[in-house]
Recover the amino acids of this structure.
């Protein structure tokens, strides 16, 4: 079971969180013309990386905040966590 | 029965407490502190089972967790449990056990015929042979294999025992209480670290209980006892025996199974049988020791052949002789320690050492005691069927290829030592890449992967002095990092005998003209010849060889067999062992009872149960409940002998003619506040929300980004910047997360807060033509006329002194209202509605009537919003704004979603107006068409229309828009039904929606 450092609450076990997928996906702006390809990339197409992956988790049984987690998908190592509004380098 | 093989004195058992037990129906005696294995051996019982494949007689091979054979069916306190190792099961008064794998009995076993037919049962036999003809598999092969095989029978009764889960954090977790674990724990504890020390056996001390060493001028055993006694007094230390750490998971989470009650005749009141510990450790010290490995020779599975360390343990811990004429067969000094113990107890062993000129302190001692030692000698084969009677032995050439003349010597047991294999399972599970250590012919942990360090024998370090030094230091260093204390511990003096190098020899060659079976894996009956066949047939990867031959599988997971298997593969393949590599070590290290894994989450505790504030009223009024997610909801309120069909029909009919009340507390409720609340709703819902006035409700549909309907419900504008959203019962949690996602990540600029208020409000839906009259009596001071409170209107009211929210919304399609009060007043509200409603013939109605009412109105619910439908499919396209953008809108342009013959909701009526259509039935054009019959749609929900008194269903049907009036067939192969049907409008009752506005 992963041990995730919620930037709001501290170290918490994985069973307090739910997974939210790739955090690098940006929703196209509202009311903007979007090509089929752009929309498909947003809704469906994911890289399914092996290695470092920036992803979303929600601390559903805690502060309910969505957070960003940088995790290795092969080893489960977690490198850093961020608040929703924090930018990452 | 006398305990003929129990020595007069000695051992760690309690001779004052004699215990009786039964094995295969026969009564024996043992002592407190025995295992079932040691007690049976004390009584001279060596035959405990039959082997898995050939049903050869099987005895005891080890004395603990490594035991591959002695798996029994245990009977305790009216319960039975399979797959119990006799070497781990502690004896208690009245214990009963039976052999497994034998039919009809352990002494006469029909399956043993396989042994004589073994030419037919080589590796892969099952894969190759039990294939054809196909029909033979379930008729003949499988029943035969099932009857003849298996490791016991699981109970089919409900398990009365209780199991607990416990979550724990610690600074240092230590797996194993041998010298290394004790030293590490002691040093860390002295630095104030929070320490958990786990030992799988009942007694602490590991190898110190049986080895002839001195630590700080005490025997190893006394030193261990002293350390444990001191650790137990320290508040920062948890010391647990009978506790096996069986898995090392991500981020230093380890799981331990504590046997709380298995050693007792019955579990004490309020005690669990087992306790599963989930431990998050800052640092982990793996001191799991090592397991002696066998040397492979002919018939090496005969009862009486066992590990030399096991023979020593039976003698030193339990005071039991495993034989009176022992033969010790060794390639290292460990065998001599066992021989010396025998000699000290007046038994004369013969030692066969495969080495030519071994020389060490231990060997000197054996010589001085006058033990008969034969160098460059090996056991070629054990003789005897149900018990070792003698051994064929021979000298062996230095290259280990040529055997000398075969001699036969009498013996009643063969104690074998092929050196030691470190127990690296936990380290490997942590992700540690193991490395092969040439000097000990075994794998040891490599670079630490998580916060784990492996020390002592588990790390291939067999010198006690070195082990204590490194372990005290590690305990100090690891704890210093955490507590910043640095209390120096003086490392005690150690007196131990120095060993000489072991012989890199593991398998005795077959003598000319002999075809003895030489077993590698005792639990699975895998012999040298099986691995040879697998390799000959082209299997190369050790993982494939394992699966083809079953080497290293089943409950012992190859604890004694893995390395010898690797040696064999490397020899045949002409590769070095590290190049062959080992199979993956996966948790659990030992079998874990399913009960322990499940814990308290059984029966009604397997999920939480949510009840509305009106639950007790429902109970008192004969409600029959149904699970709705985690909620319990009344399905109908039974009157007299009514069944579900009759009761729900009565309730639904009463709503259509008078008035009914339904508990709708379970609906999800979300409070939405902030200046941008309307903007949020406008983006989340498909329809327009910016112009909803205060005091009005609106129905809305929300989509996922892929265009699929996520949920529907009404949202009411309570005040300028305050909205009350309702969701379906099932989607409440998902919708909240969905809103939080957009507010926190996508549109953080929106100034809105959302919070769940599902538990804060109790809700009652009042529906039926008389509902307004009832409402007026409930709220005499409010104007609830059609003008004062029009359809989709909202007002606050005073319900006999309780503040209430009144929404004029309808799910039933009738004139209807929903009244909410704070949860604590829920029951008060409900009782008032029933009381005041009496004159209007009010009846409560449950979920079944609720479904009927919505189905015949064509209102969609979860069975239509099933994660596969878009608004059009549900006839909701009128709610999809063309002007504004919203979540999922862009997806609605996908070609499949705008196809001409897109699926759509329709109504379905059976032509005979009698036969109810099973939900899930497929709609087809031709009921006689060959399979697979093209499916046009499916029945999503069915009811008995109380309006028309005939069955009515909703369906999602291809090209549904143009299918009205067509005749199709509803087919349910599950219910074996073919029903001719007509397609009608989904709005079966009141298609213009006049009633809700009346
Ligand atoms: Zn948090």
């Amino acid at each position: 079971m992963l041990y995730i450092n919620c930037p709001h609450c501290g170290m918490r076990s994985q069973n307090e969180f739910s997974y939210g997928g790739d955090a690098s996906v940006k929703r196209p702006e509202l009311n903007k013309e979007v090509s089929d390809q752009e929309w498909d990339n947003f809704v469906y197409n994911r890289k399914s990386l092996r290695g470092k992956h920036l992803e979303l988790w929600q601390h559903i049984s805690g502060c309910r905040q969505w957070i960003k987690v940088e995790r290795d998908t092969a080893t489960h190592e977690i490198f850093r966590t961020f608040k929703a509004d924090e930018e990452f380098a | 029965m006398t305990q003929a093989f129990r020595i007069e004195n000695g051992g760690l058992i309690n001779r004052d407490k004699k215990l009786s037990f039964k094995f295969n129906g026969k009564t024996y005696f043992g002592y407190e502190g025995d295992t079932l294995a040691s007690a049976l051996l004390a009584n001279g019982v060596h035959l405990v089972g039959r082997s898995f494949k050939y049903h050869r007689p099987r005895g005891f091979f080890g004395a603990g967790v490594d035991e591959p054979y002695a798996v029994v069916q245990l009977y305790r306190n009216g319960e039975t449990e399979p797959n119990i190792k006799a070497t781990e099961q502690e004896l208690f008064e009245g214990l009963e056990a039976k052999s497994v794998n034998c039919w009809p009995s352990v002494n006469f076993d029909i399956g043993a015929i396989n042994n004589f037919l073994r030419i037919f049962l080589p590796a892969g036999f099952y894969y190759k042979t039990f294939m054809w003809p196909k029909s033979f598999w379930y008729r003949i092969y499988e029943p035969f294999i099932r009857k003849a095989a298996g490791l016991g029978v699981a109970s089919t009764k409900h398990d009365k025992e209780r199991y607990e889960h416990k979550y724990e954090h610690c600074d240092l977790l230590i797996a194993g209480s041998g010298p290394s674990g004790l030293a590490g724990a002691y040093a860390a504890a002295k630095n104030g670290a929070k320490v958990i020390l786990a030992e799988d056996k009942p007694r602490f001390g590991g190898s110190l209980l049986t080895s002839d060493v001195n630590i700080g001028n005490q025997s190893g055993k006394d030193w261990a006892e002293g350390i444990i006694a001191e650790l137990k007094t320290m508040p920062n230390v948890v010391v647990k025996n009978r506790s096996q750490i069986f898995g090392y998971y991500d981020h230093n989470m380890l799981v331990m199974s504590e046997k709380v009650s298995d050693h007792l005749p019955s579990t004490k009141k309020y005690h669990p049988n087992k306790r599963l510990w989930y431990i998050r450790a800052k640092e982990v010290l793996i001191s799991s020791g090592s397991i002696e490995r066998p040397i492979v020779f002919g018939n090496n599975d005969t009862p009486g052949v066992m590990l030399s360390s096991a023979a020593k343990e039976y003698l030193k811990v339990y005071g039991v002789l495993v034989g009176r004429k022992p033969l010790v067969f060794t390639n290292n000094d460990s065998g001599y320690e066992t021989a010396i113990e025998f000699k000290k107890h007046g038994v004369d062993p013969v030692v066969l050492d495969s080495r030519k000129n071994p020389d060490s302190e231990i060997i000197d001692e054996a010589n001085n005691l006058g033990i008969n030692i034969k160098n460059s000698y090996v056991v070629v084969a054990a003789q005897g069927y149900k018990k070792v009677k003698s051994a064929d032995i021979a000298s062996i050439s230095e290259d280990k290829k040529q055997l000398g003349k075969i001699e036969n010597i009498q013996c009643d047991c063969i104690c074998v030592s092929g050196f030691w294999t470190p127990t690296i399972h936990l380290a490997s599970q942590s992700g540690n890449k193991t490395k092969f250590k040439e000097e000990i012919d075994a794998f040891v942990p490599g670079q630490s992967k998580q916060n784990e360090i492996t020390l002592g024998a588990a790390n291939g370090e067999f010198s006690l002095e070195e082990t204590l030094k490194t372990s005290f230091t590690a305990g100090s260093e690891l704890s210093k990092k955490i507590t910043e204390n640095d209390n120096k511990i003086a490392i005690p003096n150690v007196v131990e005998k120095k060993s000489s190098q072991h012989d890199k020899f593991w398998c005795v060659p077959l003598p000319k003209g002999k075809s003895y079976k030489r077993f590698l894996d005792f639990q699975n009956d895998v012999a040298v010849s099986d691995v040879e066949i697998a390799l000959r047939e082209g299997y190369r990867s050790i993982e494939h060889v394992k699966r083809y031959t079953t080497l290293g599988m089943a409950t012992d997971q190859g604890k004694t067999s893995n390395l010898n298997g690797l040696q064999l593969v490397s020899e045949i393949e002409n590769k070095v062992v590290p190049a062959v590599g080992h199979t993956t070590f996966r948790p659990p290290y030992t079998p874990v009872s399913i009960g322990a894994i499940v814990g308290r989450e059984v029966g009604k505790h397997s999920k939480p149960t949510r009840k509305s504030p009106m639950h007790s009223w429902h109970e008192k009024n004969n409600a029959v409940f149904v699970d709705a997610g985690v909620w319990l909801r009344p399905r109908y309120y039974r009157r007299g002998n009514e069944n579900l069909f009759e009761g729900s029909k009565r309730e639904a009919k009463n709503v259509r003619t008078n008035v009914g009340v339904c508990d709708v507390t379970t609906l999800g409720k979300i409070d939405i506040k902030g200046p941008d609340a309307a903007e949020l709703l406008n983006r989340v819902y498909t329809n327009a929300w910016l112009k909803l006035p205060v005091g009005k409700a609106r129905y809305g549909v929300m989509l996922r980004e892929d265009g699929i309907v996520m949920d529907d419900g009404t949202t009411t504008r309570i005040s300028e910047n305050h909205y009350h959203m309702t969701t379906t019962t099932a989607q409440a949690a998902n919708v909240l997360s969905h809103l939080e996602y957009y507010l926190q990540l996508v549109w953080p600029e929106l100034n809105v807060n959302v919070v769940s208020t599902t538990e804060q409000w109790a809700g009652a839906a009042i529906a039926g033509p008389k509902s307004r009259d009832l409402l007026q009596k409930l709220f005499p001071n409010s104007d609830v006329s059609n003008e004062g409170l029009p359809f989709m209107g909202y007002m606050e009211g005073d319900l006999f002194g309780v503040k209430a929210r009144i929404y004029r919304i309808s799910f039933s399609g009738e004139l209807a209202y929903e009244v909410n009060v704070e949860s604590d007043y829920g029951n008060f509200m409900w009782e008032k509605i029933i009381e005041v409603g009496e004159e209007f013939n009010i009846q409560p109605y449950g979920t079944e009537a609720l479904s009927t009412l919505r189905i015949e109105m064509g209102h969609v619910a979860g069975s239509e919003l099933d994660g596969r439908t878009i608004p059009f499919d549900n006839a909701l396209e009128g709610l999809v704004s063309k002007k504004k953008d919203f979540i999922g809108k862009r997806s609605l342009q996908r070609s499949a979603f705008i196809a001409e013959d897109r699926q759509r909701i329709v109504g379905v009526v059976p032509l005979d107006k009698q036969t109810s259509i099973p939900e899930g039935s497929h709609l087809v054009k031709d009921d006689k068409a060959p399979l697979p019959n093209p499916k046009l749609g499916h029945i999503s929900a069915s009811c008995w229309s109380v309006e028309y008194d005939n069955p009515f269903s909703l369906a999602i049907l291809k090209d549904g828009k143009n299918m009205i009036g067509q005749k199709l067939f509803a087919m349910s192969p599950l219910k074996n039904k073919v029903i001719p049907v007509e397609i009608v409008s989904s709005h079966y009752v009141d298609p213009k929606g006049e009633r809700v506005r009346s």
